[in-house]
């Protein structure tokens, strides 16, 4: 009997550890499967490490490419995304994430006459979200196609934006991204779908990217003047028109 009593907690620990590995692989697979469908762009994730005991962990090496029609290699490169979640909520109707913290993201903002890459990603998410809601509405008993989530704190700090504009003949400029802190995403009612939460996050990122780039016309002009002769005035005028859209 004593041996059995000793074995039981060991088995429980092994099960928890095993579930931890399963959760990590499920999250990685989910990101790489649903991400491209929702964003209309390549999505890759190097590693996931989340503890079921503490609810804390990180996503490492998250890469989000660009939709078709844009030339830059990526829209977002995130070396590490730290998060803390309420473990008990995994077994409820709403997964509660206490905090998502992104430090020093590398964002590429590509602007062309037809629009910019971040807004293109937002439109793709909106389309995906609308399709998901229609699918859910068509199912019996109001079944949901997505798990609802709640994000209490979404924080982005020390971000860099690489601005790439067609009108500036391939010239790029690195800018500081204003910090972002969103609170209580999906806290009302039954929570937010993953795609709706992504829409809200991207909208905040887009707002701060535009804020960072809109105030940098003088800096861009100075950069271009060093390498482009005779077309600076026209390029900057075109840039002002693009950023005004």
Record keyword descriptors for this entry.
11 strands; disordered N terminus; 245 residues; globular; 5 helices; alpha+beta; 11-stranded mixed β-sheet
Description of the structure:
With 245 residues, the chain is of the alpha+beta class. It has one domain. The protein has 5 helices and 11 strands; from the N terminus they run H-E-E-E-E-E-E-H-E-E-E-E-E-H-H-H. The chain has helices at 2-39, 117-138, 194-214, 217-225, 232-243, and strands at 43-50, 56-64, 76-85, 94-103, 106-112, 115-116, 148-157, 159-165, 172-177, 180-185, 192-193. Strands 1, 2, 3, 4, 5, 6, 7, 8, 9, 10 and 11 form an 11-stranded mixed β-sheet that branches. Strand 3 (76-85) and strand 4 (94-103) form a beta hairpin. The protein starts with a helix and ends with a helix.
Characterize this entry briefly.
With 245 residues, the protein is an alpha+beta fold.
Radius of gyration from CA coordinates: 22 Å
Class from helix and strand fractions: alpha+beta
Beta-strand percentage? 25-35%
The mean pLDDT is 77
Number of strands: 11
H/E element order: HEEEEEEHEEEEEHHH
| Overall spatial form | globular
Largest sheet, strands/sense/barrel: 11 strands, mixed
Topology:
Layout: H1 2-39, E1 43-50, E2 56-64, E3 76-85, E4 94-103, E5 106-112, E6 115-116, H2 117-138, E7 148-157, E8 159-165, E9 172-177, E10 180-185, E11 192-193, H3 194-214, H4 217-225, H5 232-243
Parallel strand pairs: 4-7, 5-8
Antiparallel strand pairs: 1-2, 2-3, 3-4, 3-5, 5-6, 7-10, 7-11, 8-9
Helix pairs in contact: 2-3, 4-5
């Amino acid at each position: 009997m004593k041996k059995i009593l000793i074995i039981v907690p060991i088995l429980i620990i092994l099960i928890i550890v095993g579930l931890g590995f399963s959760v990590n692989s499920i999250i990685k697979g989910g990101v790489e499967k649903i991400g491209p469908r929702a964003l209309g762009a390549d999505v890759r994730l190097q590693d996931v490490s989340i503890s079921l005991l503490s609810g804390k962990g990180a996503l490492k090496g998250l890469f989000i490419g660009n939709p078709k029609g844009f030339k830059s290699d990526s829209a977002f490169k995130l070396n590490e995304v730290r998060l803390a979640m309420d473990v008990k909520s995994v077994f409820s109707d709403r997964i509660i994430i206490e905090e998502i913290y992104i430090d020093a993201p590398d964002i590429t903002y590509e602007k062309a006459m037809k629009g910019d890459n971040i807004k293109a990603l937002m439109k793709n998410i909106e389309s995906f979200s609308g399709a998901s809601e229609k699918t859910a509405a068509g199912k019996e008993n109001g079944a949901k196609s997505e798990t609802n989530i709640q994000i209490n704190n979404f924080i982005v700090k020390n971000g860099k934006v690489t601005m790439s504009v067609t009108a500036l003949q391939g010239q790029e400029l690195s800018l500081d991204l204003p910090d972002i802190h969103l609170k209580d995403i999906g806290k009302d009612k039954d929570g937010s779908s993953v795609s709706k939460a992504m829409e809200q996050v991207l909208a905040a990122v887009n707002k701060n990217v535009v804020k960072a780039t809109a105030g940098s016309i003088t800096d861009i002009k100075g950069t271009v003047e060093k390498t482009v002769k005779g077309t600076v005035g026209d390029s900057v005028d075109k840039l002002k028109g693009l950023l005004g859209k």
